[in-house]
Amino acid sequence: MVDDKGRIPRLWAVVPAAGQGSRFGAELPKQYSPLAGKTVIEHSLDALLRCPELAGIVVALHADDKDFAQLSCAKHPKVTQVAGGRERADSVALAMASLTDAEAHDWVLVHDAARPCLSEQDLQTLLFKGRSHAVGAILAARVVDTVKRASDEQEAVTTVDRNNLWRALTPQLFRYGALREALEYCRERALPVTDEASAMEHLGGQALLVEGSHRNIKITYPDDLTIAEVFLAGALNA
């Protein structure tokens, strides 16, 4: 898709992987857990690398990470790595800063290292719809469970209307320049950034919600690995 100056924006990807997965309760960070013959992060990167137009991927790692370099995907010509930061937003910002060939009008995908079940169809739909939107887009899933608001005593106070509630997934797709500006704006003002869309929201940008599969789960607890293995087996046998 050509921009208003006749240029073809390139597509980059950033994978924040500097977290230690404290809720996962294992010796290794959850992205290195074995899953269907690979590690979780290998599946997550494979899903991105299947996109032929991708110019490159930057993986933001913990400063003490010694595991990523042992993986075959670390040697892929499109994959580079950088030391991440304390928070997710810091890691994303550092990874984007390392993309010295990227231009402001380029697009960048940010994908969780612990989301190994991203489908090719969801990724292509996100790219098609997101690059036609003024701000960008994120994969998301409608909230289907009844949602309760709790008191400090963890008692159900009220039921929340779920009709307009969505769960934010990844990848999330934004212009390179706009996302860097949003992250810097939030950093300077110590604003909370839970995902890239929230950073854009602080500058008034409203991302398009692209409905994605509920199978695109994030590995948070050990039981999630069992679920992800079933989903991956289904995709391989489809």
Summed over residues and divided by their number, the pLDDT gives a mean of 93
Instruction: Say what oligomer this is.
Output: single chain
Secondary structural class? alpha/beta
What fraction, in percent, of the residue positions are helical? 25-40%
| CATH fold-type name | Spore Coat Polysaccharide Biosynthesis Protein SpsA, Chain A
Describe this structure in words.
The chain is α/β, with parallel strands linked by helices and 238 residues long. It has one domain (11-138, 168-237): Spore Coat Polysaccharide Biosynthesis Protein SpsA, Chain A (Alpha-Beta Complex), CATH 3.90.550. The protein contains six helices and eleven strands. A seven-stranded mixed beta sheet has the order 5-4-1-6-10-7-11, with helices on both faces. The chain has a two-stranded antiparallel sheet with strand order 2-3. Helix 2 packs across helix 4 (176-189). The longest helix is centred in the C-terminal third of the chain and has 15 residues, at 223-237. The protein is globular and about 50 Å long. The model has no long low-confidence stretch (mean pLDDT 93).
